[in-house]
Amino acid sequence: RKMLSVTDFRKMKKEGSKIAMVTAYDYPAAKLSEKAGADMLLVGDSLGMVVLGYESTIPVTIEDMLHHTKAVTRGAPNTFVVTDMPFLSYHGNIDTTMKNAARLMQEGLCRALKLEGGAEIASTVSALVKAGIPIVGHIGLTPQAVHQLGGYRVQGKDTAQAEKLLSDAVSLEQAGAFAVVLEMVPEELAQWISSRISIPTIGIGAGRYCDGQVLVYHDLLQYASPLKPKFVKSYAELGQHVTEAVHSYVTEVKAGQFPAEEHVFHLNETVSADLKH
Ligand code: KIV
Ligand code: NA
């Protein structure tokens, strides 16, 4: 199927067809998610937590994002890939921000970048958009600010916070962002924001009325993800399958049951190739 573009995502919002996004951090996840029909892949800095084992996304570097983005774009050559700009890689002077963005685009070969923040980063978003880079905003719970927010908690519950989030979404749209992620906000607020801007909203823990949804790959597969927040639905129990499979292997090795006759080579045996894929 053909690669979708920012124009398609805008059209999908207009037509009311939902955008399905999932995170991916490596070649197999990208390949399988493309095959599964995901509209958009996100190389989220959540990789710091779900694949690198950090306690937050703060330790994640540009080098980490590049390493994983390269694998994802190789695995999903026909899918629109968005990459997160990691902690403090877009808060210094604009030259440094541009250099970091250039590396992710030129070496990572992704199609768009995502930045956390609202009105306060609008001028940065605007500069990146003017340089030709499609940008996704991210407001509500912004994990790079976890220590300021006092934990991973629902955002925008009072009127003042809700109005601030709406004005942030409007600022991002005006700055030229083509989509905005709404993370952990009440459904009513996400619905309100979605109706007030013309760019698609992609929700995570933001209810049913966003223009699209995103989930973390390891969460939806229950693949050793550290947390299971209320907004996650498990579509598989991969962690359990992996544990059972590796345990069977370990048990068979110890019992001398693996390898068996069909797995071994013999002298004087003629085989067309020693390795079969
Ligand atoms: O890093 C990530 O996975 C994200 C999504 C949760 C939106 O930013
Ligand atoms: Na992220």
TrEMBL record:
Query: What keywords does the record list, in alphabetical order?
Result: Cytoplasm, Magnesium, Metal-binding, Pantothenate biosynthesis, Transferase
Oligomer and partners:
Homodecamer; pentamer of dimers.
Q: Does the keyword DNA damage apply?
A: no
The UniProt family comment states: Belongs to the PanB family.
Give me the comment on cofactor binding: Binds 1 Mg(2+) ion per subunit.
Q: Name one Pfam family in it.
A: Pantoate_transf
Subcellular location per the Swiss-Prot or TrEMBL entry: Cytoplasm
Ligand binding (Mg(2+)): D45, D84, E116
User: What InterPro entries does this protein map onto?
Assistant: Pantoate_hydroxy_MeTrfase, Pyrv/PenolPyrv_kinase-like_dom, Pyrv_kinase-like_dom_sf
Q: Which PANTHER family match?
A: 3-METHYL-2-OXOBUTANOATE HYDROXYMETHYLTRANSFERASE
- The answer to keyword Protein biosynthesis applying to this record is no
Judging by the UniProt lineage, the source's domain of life is Bacteria
Cofactor names from the entry are:
Mg(2+)
Q: Which protein is depicted? A: 3-methyl-2-oxobutanoate hydroxymethyltransferase
Q: Where does 3-methyl-2-oxobutanoate bind?
A: D45, S46, D84, K114
Record's function text: Catalyzes the reversible reaction in which hydroxymethyl group from 5,10-methylenetetrahydrofolate is transferred onto alpha-ketoisovalerate to form ketopantoate.
Q: What is its main location?
A: cytoplasm
Enzyme Commission number(s) of this protein: 2.1.2.11
Which pathway does this chain act in?
Cofactor biosynthesis; (R)-pantothenate biosynthesis; (R)-pantoate from 3-methyl-2-oxobutanoate: step 1/2
Q: Which reaction does it catalyse?
A: (6R)-5,10-methylene-5,6,7,8-tetrahydrofolate + 3-methyl-2-oxobutanoate + H2O = 2-dehydropantoate + (6S)-5,6,7,8-tetrahydrofolate
Q: Where is the active site?
A: E183
Q: Name one GO molecular function term.
A: 3-methyl-2-oxobutanoate hydroxymethyltransferase activity
